Amino acid sequence: VELGQYTGVEVERKQRQITDKDVEDEISGLLEKHAQYPEITDRPAKVGDVVRIETRAENESEEEAKRNVVQIGDNLPDFDSGLTGMSPGEEKVISVSYPEDHDSEELRGKTVPISLKLHEIHEKQLPELTDEWVKNSFGGKHEEDAEPPPDAIDTVDKLRNTIKTEMEKAAQSAADNDAHNAIVLKIIEGCKVDFPQVMADEIVKEHLEELVENLKKRKLTLDDYFKYKEISFEDLRSQYEEEARQELRSMLVLREITDKESIQVEEDDIKAEMENMAAENSVPVETIWAYVDKTKAMPTVRNRILTKKLMDFLVHASNIKNVG
After folding, report:
1. What DSSP string describes 95-154?
2. How many CB atoms neighbour CB 189 within 10 A?
3. How confident is the model at residue 64 (pLDDT cuts 50, 70, 90)?
């Protein structure tokens, strides 16, 4: 490894600004998650309803009927149109046209008759955004006569403020990560790195073995994967090799800087990390020590600390410009 410039590196840091619309969109998502779905029996199905149905391809008489739960408005237009206006117990045949880019290659561009039976209609009802709902949903548990804690989320305004604060923290973290990655990338681009091909081959082999294991768990094969991704084994291996070479360049350059700057993990660093882990998991620090010892995870902990110390050094040694 021949290091180039790794201090005084100039990068831009762009942080997303959180707007009132972002907050309201997040609240809308919360209301969706708390939606109720009472069964409806006194009217036909309409857009927005969640319905329990039974379907079967009309031209496949021996095919077993499939039962599904769908929301009207989230499906192909012909399917939603056929469901709209149906009543529980009603059956009919509808024609569904599939687009040319449909997920199923066999159905692309075809119009298929489908036998459809509607069993139940459930109306999606969103809760009303009120202080009472917020208090019941996010206020936490405390004695009925006791004063709620100062940080209790028990009003709509507090909910909005909390969401905005958390979204701003997330945006700040994302901006920091992007800037850190830009620093590392610039440093690596300015370095000369040489390593034997066998090192890249070993990483490629590990990635392939990991992929095969993950596919096995899902009862799939590499051939299934290639067909779904529309790639060949050579394409995959080339992709993995490029990723392996980038991974090696990054690892070797950062290790060289760590050695040159004598960045080390001290006992106080480990102690502080254990205390942070205990606080994050709300457990005694002794529990964390015991867990790390039992799982022999100390090398992982030390490596995490070393990586953080190196990144802190590079950040402080770089010129980071905040942009809007």
Report:
1. EEEPPTT-SSGGGTT-EEEEEEEEEEEE--BPPP--HHHHHHHHS----TTSPPPTT---
2. 10
3. confident
241 three-class SS: helix
Residue pair 253/187 in contact by the 8 Å Cβ criterion:
yes
Token readout for 245 is 């070479």
pTM of the complete model: 0.73
274-288 pLDDT, tens digit each: 999 999 999 999 999
281 phi-psi bin (left φ>0, alpha ψ -120 to 50, beta other): alpha
* CA–CA distance, 316 with 183 (Å, rounded to integer): 11
Which run of H or of E encompasses 94? Answer: strand 91-97
Count of alpha carbons within 13 angstroms of residue 152, beta-carbon side: 17
Instruction: Provide DSSP, 290-324.
Output: HHHHHHT-HHHHHHHHHHHHHHHHHHHTSEEEEE-
Q: pLDDT, tens digit, for every residue of 48-62?
A: 999 999 998 876 656
